[in-house]
């Protein structure tokens, strides 16, 4: 069983990568979804972030990696939303075959795409965008990216990105 | 005048990138060479690292960026050895047109290549290799990489890397 961990700065194209995986019937889970699911079931008054930390403190740092892996199926499984080198270590401690795939897009293009996407959590100013980047880097995301096993560049067209993502995933399954 | 700042983890292929630039007659400077040059001229008893910091404290944080830029010539100029986001800011404060190019190679392949290269500063164990990576990331190098404008992946053959490097540089000059 191969575990593919997808990472990338906000707006780099992780969702598009997941949509390619979906089209190839590769199962995946978003760490954030797992956390939110447990959070809403718990009936706690803590917010999601506090709850995630509290569960880590009570049940072990790797609790969210464990809960993601309970969802694993098939020969290849994809996890999205892993931010820190410590989280990568959690996965590597639970299974042998972990591959980290990073998606890189220049800050300029990421900013433009986030504005176009206009999701509720999209930044409305460059300062907000930079603050969000800084927050992700504060978790150690840039270390995860810099030490990734594979890197896909997404500065070009969506079509080209889809082709490259497909090629990479095909070589892995 | 366009300034291209090249970055990448140890063993990622920066030297090969510079050799491609050299073949295209693009002038370049290595920050480390500039520091070492000033260090040996100074006759100080400090080591190179201490001297670099002392000059920064006396003459301003951007002193090494300034001294690199004094070497600039032509329409396009390349700087190697920039480790931190603060150093990138120094360059951006001195000239408008700064492009950060990162080279990415997986840790596994970087380690193998460093062993093959067997330069005097090559790591002899995985622990040494990881410690060196950690040192570079401690300077903020992974933030520079993750926020780069361009990214070249160097997990394949040298020939392919040379071709991609040439293509990128051609588009810039």
Tell me what you see in this structure:
With 173 residues, chain A is of the alpha/beta class. Helix content of chain A is 55%, strand content 15%. Chain A has 9 helices and 5 strands. Chain A has helices at 14-23, 31-42, 48-59, 63-69, 85-94, 107-117, 126-138, 141-146, 158-172, and strands spanning 2-8, 28-30, 76-80, 98-104, 150-153. Chain A has a 5-stranded parallel β-sheet with strand order 2-3-1-4-5. In chain A, helix 1 packs across helix 9. The first copy, chain A, is globular. In chain A, 32% of the residues are buried. The mean pLDDT of chain A is 93. The A-B interface holds A 9, 102, 104, 106-108, 133, 137, 141-143, 145-153, 155 and B 9, 102, 104, 106-108, 133, 137, 141-143, 145-153, 155.
Got a strand count of chain A? 5
Radius of gyration computed on alpha carbons of chain A: 16 Å
> What is the strand content of chain A?
15-25%
The largest interface is: A-B, 21 and 21 residues
What structural category arises from helix and sheet content of chain A? alpha/beta
Determine the number of helices of chain A (DSSP H or I, runs of at least 4 residues): 9
Distance between the termini of chain A: 10 Å
The helical percent of chain A reads: 55-70%
Mean pLDDT across all amino acids of chain A: 93
Sheet of most strands of chain A: 5 strands, parallel
Envelope shape of chain A: globular
N-to-C order of helices and strands of chain A? EHEHHHEHEHHHEH
In terms of per-residue confidence, which ranges of chain A show pLDDT below 50 for 5 or more consecutive residues? Answer: none
Strand order of the largest sheet of chain A: 2-3-1-4-5
| Quaternary status | homodimer
């Amino acid at each position: 069983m191969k575990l593919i961990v997808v990472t990338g700065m906000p707006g780099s194209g992780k969702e598009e990568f997941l949509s390619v995986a979906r089209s190839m019937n590769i199962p995946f889970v978003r760490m954030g979804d797992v956390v939110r699911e447990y959070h809403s079931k718990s009936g706690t008054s803590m917010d999601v972030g506090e709850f995630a930390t509290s569960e880590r403190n009570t049940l072990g740092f790797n609790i969210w990696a464990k809960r993601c892996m309970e969802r694993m199926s098939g020969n290849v499984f994809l996890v999205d939303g892993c931010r820190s080198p410590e989280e990568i270590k959690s996965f590597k401690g639970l299974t042998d075959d972990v591959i980290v795939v990073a998606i890189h897009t220049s800050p300029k293009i990421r900013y433009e795409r986030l504005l176009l996407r206009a999701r509720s959590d999209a930044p409305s100013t460059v300062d907000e965008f930079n603050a969000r980047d800084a927050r992700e880097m504060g978790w150690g995301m840039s270390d995860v990216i810099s030490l990734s096993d594979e890197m896909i560049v997404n500065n070009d067209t969506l079509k080209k990105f889809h082709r490259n993502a497909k090629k990479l995933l095909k070589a892995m399954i």
